[in-house]
Amino acid sequence: MSWSAFAFLIAMNMVGALAPGPDIVLVTRYATRSRKHAVAAVTGTQVGVLFWCTLTVFGAAALLTAFPGLLRFIQGIGGCFLIWMGLQNVRTGLAQRKQPALNLDEAVSRLGSVKQVFRTGLFTNLSNPKIVLYLAAMIAPLLPPHPPLWLAAGLVLSMGISSYLVFVTVATVISTNAIRRRLLAAGPIIDIASGCFFAVAGVGLIIAAITG
Q1: Distance between CA 158 and CA 16 in Å, rounded?
Q2: CA 212: distance to chain centroid?
Q3: Which membrane topology term applies here (predicted)?
Q4: The total number of structural domains that make up the chain
């Protein structure tokens, strides 16, 4: 693999990280309240990305293609998780609409612990195994059929780090005090909207699992 091909893969990975999806919606939701929680969500999602990148580089796409039932099973479980999380967000948003406006400290206190947020980020990313097929389509044309270990490990780490930096940048920008304070009043709406997004995404995964 040439250095230009390697750089192209990293650039495409960073662009793909910004595509609308559960990960970016989750991080945005937390960033409107707390940078610490947003970074925890980022870390969780990117551990998932690192996991999928590792599986992709070492041939998991072929496994999922050969055994489509495995892909559908993981999609079904992931879809149920996203629906559950979406309903929780909607319920939280509706409850907050009936209460007085919160200050930042009160809003942060309702997000749960950083460990809980990390786990939510991790499970959100792991809920959709199709990322393996996306990564395989991007990597396969440029990666040698049997890449040496140093190249495989370097590619996995580079894609993981570059994606992490993109998400941390997004979380940092959104979680600045000026933006957070402006969005605080819209917190319930953000919760409801993100909850609906997760629920719809979960239903989509379940339908894909049933009809795939």
Answers
A1: 14
A2: 22
A3: Multi-pass membrane protein
A4: 1
